[in-house]
Write a structure and sequence with these properties.
The chain is of the alpha+beta class. The protein contains 4 helices and 3 strands; from the N terminus they run E-H-H-E-E-H-H.
Length: 81
């Protein structure tokens, strides 16, 4: 992962765009990480993962409420083997 100061990032924006196609670029301001530039493909993958995780998490939560915590935990232990 490449790091770049914000001033350098401003002056070399094209380089950031090119580099971000291969690896994330961290932008620092006053010595602190403030932003990350990633490729659009990486962003899409991130979104799909977050949406999928959120969807299945909500389904699991609803199922737990429907059958109760004890039955849900028992099922999870049996299913997880």
């Amino acid at each position: 992962m490449k790091k770049m100061a914000s001033t350098s990032a401003k002056n070399n924006f094209g380089e950031i765009l090119t580099t971000s196609q291969r690896e994330p670029v961290v932008i620092e301001k006053n010595g602190k990480n403030v932003s990350v530039v990633i490729s659009f493909e990486e962003f899409k993958n991130y979104q799909e993962t977050v949406i999928s995780d959120r969807y299945w998490g909500e389904k699991a939560e609803k199922a737990t409420k429907m059958i109760g915590k004890a039955k849900s935990e028992k099922f999870y232990k049996e299913f997880g083997k």
